[in-house]
């Protein structure tokens, strides 16, 4: 399994997941740069993602929904802030209410940084999300963010090996 460490720090308001992949950073970057590849790994296996909009550039927006086993849809968005290909990108990660991707202000947004660095002949990916409060971080933890993100990230190995 690629995920090697998961930590949440209520004092610093962060959730950090570290994963190691047997592929170079450029290959791991391609997973996020290509919406069709990203759909194969974003979201747990039981809730595949569909990216409706995908603009991985500063000021870009990525809108997606995950489909549950009973056909229910869960909407989300990324508002891309900074991109340093193939090393890192930062974005605001939020939940949406509907297919127009209207922000759901009742659920927390996270300030996320995904970074990719060479490590032991492959890539070490560090996924860090920072929340506005301990309550916001606890909310996403209670919603199953660790389990969902871990199962999603663990799908990347098979994709980059293909």
TrEMBL record:
Gene3D superfamilies reported for this sequence: 3.30.530.20
InterPro entries: ASHA1/2-like_C, START-like_dom_sf
Domain Activator of Hsp90 ATPase homologue 1/2-like C-terminal, residue spans: 22-160
Pfam assignment, any one: AHSA1
Family affiliation: Belongs to the AHA1 family.
Official protein name in the record: SRPBCC domain-containing protein
């Amino acid at each position: 399994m690629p995920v090697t460490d998961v930590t949440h720090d209520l004092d610093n308001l962060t959730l950090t997941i570290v994963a190691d992949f047997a592929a170079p950073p450029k290959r791991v970057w391609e997973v996020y740069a290509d919406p069709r590849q990203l759909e194969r790994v974003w979201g747990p296996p039981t809730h595949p993602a569909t990216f409706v909009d995908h603009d991985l550039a500063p000021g870009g927006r990525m809108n997606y929904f995950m489909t549950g086993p009973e056909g229910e849809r869960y909407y989300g968005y990324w508002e891309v802030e900074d991109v340093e290909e193939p090393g890192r990108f930062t974005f605001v990660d939020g939940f949406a209410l509907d297919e127009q991707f209207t922000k759901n202000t009742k659920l927390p947004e996270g300030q996320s940084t995904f970074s990719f660095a060479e490590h032991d002949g492959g890539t070490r990916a560090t996924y860090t999300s920072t929340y506005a409060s301990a309550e916001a971080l606890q909310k996403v933890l209670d919603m199953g963010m660790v389990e969902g993100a871990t199962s999603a990230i663990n799908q990347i190995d098979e994709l980059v090996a293909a």
